[in-house]
Design a protein that fits this description.
The chain has about 600 residues and is an alpha+beta fold. The protein is about 50% helix and about 10% strand. The chain has helices at about 15-25, 45-55, 85-100, 125-140, 210-220, 225-235, 240, 245-260, 265-275, 280-285, 285-300, 305-315, 330-345, 345-350, 355-375, 380-390, 390-405, 430-435, 455-480, 490-510, 510-530, 530-555, 560-570, 580-585, and strands at about 25-35, 40-45, 60-65, 70-75, 105-110, 115-120, 145-150, 155, 170, 410, 425. The strands form 3 sheets. The chain has a 5-stranded antiparallel sheet, covered by helices on one side. A hairpin with a 5-residue loop joins strand 1 (about 25-35) and strand 2 (about 40-45). The two termini are about 25 Å apart.
């Protein structure tokens, strides 16, 4: 991250006369005279009038102008993120080099605070989105705040800093002849900084490996796959090669935000999902940066019909990794015919219910259509609920109504065990409504429907249910072979089940007011923690989760050397939760194996 890169040929600091000419060429009305607190004192229609007001008003300290259409302004501030001043300088030089490489004129100015810079450039509309994406990449790489100003307001080049800090123009190639002389029409608003399009370009041959895998990640989330299932589907690209931690932070985090926008979730719900996707990434960004960098661009793309069409034609992440690739257009056409037939056959059923239930029925039909086309109709009720974003209870009722009215039929019923499920086919009414024309051309994909349930919460709840059901199936098989009872069996699954049942029984036995009091106590305790203490607590929870997963693999005989090491060096009191103060104070007062490295210490 060197800040001593060589300036491009022809770049120099303009003199006072040139700065005055640049102010006239780059900026237009309104001109705002501001005070030391950046509040408006007066607004004028000309720069000369603003300069007169600057002299007349005692509180006035500087002048802000509005950049003309085609002039882009980037504000870089290292202090906002706590980055060193050198990081802000390096970021501004990276932008300078990008502009120079594209043959675009620029100015680079110190903004006042250490590490703060303004980069002003004449960027054509064709390169605006690419420039916005590069600004976001540079900001993330150097850990600084860098924003493409919208609206394009900036202190004039000849105006003093409002706090009197030195803010000279350092270098540049921009001249008055390069700047537009007048606004011939409404300025195009640049897309907010983002890294790359959510679904990649429309031509697959132009996609990079990362763009392709990012598109598959989004498609997997739309299909209801979790992190582990998605990771198993991905091919080789730079982020994947860097491991699961970087994939979770830089691809999974953004993809979860993208799909949340597509499903119409509000900002609070999307932020909760993003934090659950990657706590580390959410903490490093903060909500405001996440909103500007990921959420708002995702909302814009979700409202774009062209982007929706691209998504419908490219969502194939739920296919097995080694399955022969189907023609995307043909598969999308089959899916569209199936969906249309099911919706047409269910029109009278849908009309009987209130609008909320109608939306749920349409969402379940769309999810079932995907299963019929891509999975031969095999899908369990929890996965169906997750993909439709409809609660499991409502999904069961809708599925029963669709079966009763001949929209779907059960071809193979659940036969037992934790890995089996129903297999569905089109019912008689849907078969009759299925169009006979099977052409893959000249059809219009329609947007898929989703319910309002929180998919992440459903998945967490369903994981618990699947875990208990898998234990039940394992216990049933074990006790059938040995004749033991669940209450007395020494089978590992029986011990685990008894522990879970006992914990739940103890909690359910508490009165509701006691349960609520305990919830409030825990929330109050977490609220009193300092940020570094909360970080240690969440790190502790992550460590405990890793130990639990290692123990689960060890019980099934699939353990690895790293799992054995993690279990043999685990704290003896890891099960005590927040009562075990090792996570905060260190293991000084606790007896432990001297050879066992402490999980945390005071310097952590």
């Amino acid at each position: 991250m060197s800040q001593h890169t060589r300036a491009p040929l022809g770049a120099s600091a303009p003199n006072a006369e040139q700065l005055h000419a640049l102010d006239q060429a780059l900026f237009d009305a309104p001109y705002i005279v501001i005070d030391r607190d950046n509040n408006k004192v007066v607004t004028t229609a000309t720069a000369d009038a603003a300069r007169v007001a600057l002299q007349q008003h005692p509180a006035a300290v500087s002048i802000v102008g509005t950049a003309r259409a085609g002039i882009e302004v980037v504000d870089i501030d290292a202090a906002d993120t706590g980055a060193p001043a050198e990081a802000g300088t390096a970021a501004s030089e990276n932008l300078r080099d990008w502009l120079t490489g594209h043959g675009l004129p620029f100015l680079r100015r110190a903004s006042g605070r250490p590490g703060g810079h303004h980069v002003i450039a004449h960027v054509p509309a064709a390169l605006l989105d690419a420039f916005a994406a590069y600004v976001a990449d540079v900001a993330e790489h150097h850990g600084v705040a860098a924003t493409l100003r919208v609206p394009r307001t900036l202190r004039l080049l000849t105006a003093p800093h409002r706090h009197g800090h030195p803010a000279p123009v350092l270098e540049g190639t921009l001249t008055p002849a390069d700047a537009p002389t007048a606004s011939t029409g409404p300025a195009r608003t640049p897309k907010r900084p983002t890294h790359r399009p959510a679904s990649g370009p429309s031509k697959p041959g132009q996609q990079t490996a990362s763009e392709r895998e990012y598109g598959r990640t989004c498609a997997a989330i739309r299909r209801g796959l979790n992190f582990t299932q998605t990771w198993a589907l991905l091919g080789e690209c730079q982020v994947v090669e860097r491991g699961q931690a970087d994939f979770r932070r830089f691809m999974w985090f953004r993809a979860v935000t993208e799909v949340a926008a597509e499903r119409g979730l509000d900002e609070d719900a999307a932020w909760d999902l993003a934090r659950e996707a990657s706590v580390a990434r959410a903490r490093s960004l903060g909500r405001q940066a996440w909103r500007e960098r990921y959420w708002l661009p995702a909302v814009e793309r979700a409202a774009d019909p062209a982007q929706r069409r691209v998504r419908r034609l490219s969502d194939r992440a739920d296919e097995p990794p080694h399955a022969p690739a189907a023609d995307p257009a043909e598969q999308a056409a089959v899916l569209e015919r199936t969906r249309k037939a099911m919706h047409d056959a269910a029109s009278d059923l849908i009309a009987r219910f209130r609008p909320q239930r109608q939306k749920s029925i349409r969402a379940v039909i769309d999810a079932l259509a995907v299963a019929l086309v891509t999975r031969d109709g095999s899908i369990d009720v929890r996965t169906l609920a997750e993909q439709a974003c409809v609660s499991k209870g409502v999904t069961v009722q809708v599925k029963a109504d669709l079966t009763e009215h001949g929209i779907i039929a059960v071809a193979e019923k659940y036969s037992g065990g934790a890995d089996d499920c129903h297999r569905y086919i089109l019912g008689s009414r849907a078969e009759q409504a299925l169009p006979q024309n099977k052409t893959t051309r000249w059809y219009t994909p329609t947007p898929r429907s989703y319910g309002h349930a929180n998919p992440q919460r459903m998945r967490l709840h369903h994981v618990r249910e699947r875990t208990r059901w898998q234990l039940r199936c394992t216990l049933e098989e074990a006790t059938r072979q040995t004749g033991e009872r669940w209450a007395t069996s020494q089978h590992p699954a029986a011990k685990t089940a008894r522990s879970l049942w006992a914990q739940r029984a103890r909690w359910d036995a508490l009165p509701e007011d006691v349960q609520e009091q305990k919830r409030k106590q825990r929330k109050a305790f977490l609220g009193r923690l300092e940020p570094y203490e909360r970080k240690r607590w969440f790190d502790w929870l992550n460590h405990r989760d890793g130990l639990a997963q290692a123990a689960a693999r060890a019980r099934t005989g699939q353990d690895q050397p790293a799992d054995v090491l993690a279990l043999t060096t685990a704290p003896l009191t890891v099960h005590l939760g927040m009562r075990e103060r090792t996570w905060l104070d260190g293991p000084v007062a606790l007896p432990h194996d001297p050879a066992q490295p402490p999980l945390f210490d005071r310097a952590a």
